Amino acid sequence: MAKPIGPICNLDCTYCYYLEKETLFPKGQDFKMKPDVLEAYIRQYIVSQNTLEVTFAWQGGEPTLLGLEYFKKIIELQKKHSGGRKINNTLQTNGTLLNDNWCLFLKEHEFLVGISIDGPRRLHDTYRLDKGQKPTFDRVMAGIALLKKHKVEFNTLTVVSVSNAKHPVEVYDFLREVGSGYIQFIPLVERLPAEGAAREGLDFAEPPEPGQPASPVTRWSVPSEAYGDFLITIFDEWVKRDVGRVFVQMFDVSLGIWSGHGPGLCIFLKDCGEGLALEHNGDLYSCDHFVYPKYNLGNILNESIADLVNSDRQRAFGQAKSTTLPKYCLECEVRFACNGECPKHRFLTTPDGEEGLNYLCAGYKKFFTHVDPYMKKMSELMQAKTAPASIMQMLPL
Fold first, then answer.
1. What number of other Cβ atoms are within 10 A of residue 190's Cβ?
2. Is 288 a catalytic residue?
């Protein structure tokens, strides 16, 4: 994913782990991706893909702060370097700066827009505040209304915190009513630096390393089993009425795993290393959650994206996901689905004292165990060339 404005955002969400990344760069610098970096990225990224369609993911910070003219330039450069390939674009935004002109542009160029929204007003406004610590719900909803008005395809991304995790049905029903046909849930897990650790202007702890001192999670992080219960409750609603109508990323990913097609989501792959993050200055990092100096692979003005992605460093980073799994995980009955999830969350110890257990382990184990019979049945339906939605007429299993 590309971050053409780095960590700069017009909001000040309490839980945002990316705002503090501004301190990793020289003070006073312009965080707008410069023309030479932008063109180098677009050209190199297209060349590095061996597919007829190429998808760009634009994130931030808040990318709409760059302005509409900047994105018009992006389209020009993509056409210049497309080589006849079809170019797709996705844009992740908080939605507060959208207007008619933005939506006309997004519709014309068929952007898929991801809107960050954490549920109905009282849940969304718990943590998603602006720089003046004022609520943002009404502005986000106004942005969604504009997307609907101009028939721009959009989905929603909901961060699951200690707050909204207590209200799964309310959150799910709200997102359905908003009109999100595709729903993503992201578990909120952030840690504070260990006592005595060098902070270097950062409020959150870096990804865990072996032998690292214990570090507490933030007060807004979702408890592991609470996240599992949140997913289970929503799944039970979805499987009764919404299969084939509402697409929930976590459920689609699970069906892909059970049906033998793979998860299609990096956190559940055996190895990782393909979800890199490009910063505004051209620095390429191993992962969006690992934007720290030790994970800086190099700059695309000096080395090609392809060379950096295929470097020994990045290959080792990706393979470490499977080679560092503790025995407890290797022997787990749902490892085929979880694969230890994201290394960023592996900071607990197993019951026998081995390091590297994922913080969300208990929640995932509950969820994957609960959905197992349903996923098996839907997989059988798919093999019989029958729509998985047929399961709604078969319940209870």
1. 17
2. yes
Q: In residues, how long is the chain?
A: 397
Q: CA-to-CA distance for 360 and 322, rounded, in angstroms?
A: 17
| Torsion angles phi and psi, residue 277, rounded to 5 | -125, 130
Residues 6 or more apart in contact with residue 145 via CB below 8 angstroms: none
5 near 33, Cβ under 8 Å?
yes
One-letter amino acid identity for 124? H
- In 3-state terms, the chain is what percent helix, strand and coil (to 5)? 45, 15, 45
Nearby residues of 353 by Cβ (< 8 Å), 6 or more positions away: none
Give me the catalytic one of 130, 236, 288, 372.
288
Amino acid at 185: F
Q: What token pair was written down for 282?
A: 């051209």
Res 197: pLDDT: 58
pLDDT along the chain (397 residues), means of 10: 97 95 88 98 96 96 98 98 97 98 98 98 98 98 98 98 98 96 96 70 81 86 98 98 97 97 94 95 96 96 97 97 96 97 96 96 98 97 96 90
Listed in order, strand segments (DSSP E) in the chain are: 53-58, 86-93, 112-116, 154-160, 182-187, 247-248, 277-278, 283-285, 296-299, 348-349, 355-357
Kindly give, in sequence order, each residue whose CB lies less than 8 Å from that of residue 103, ignoring residues fewer than 6 positions away: 146, 147, 149, 150, 152
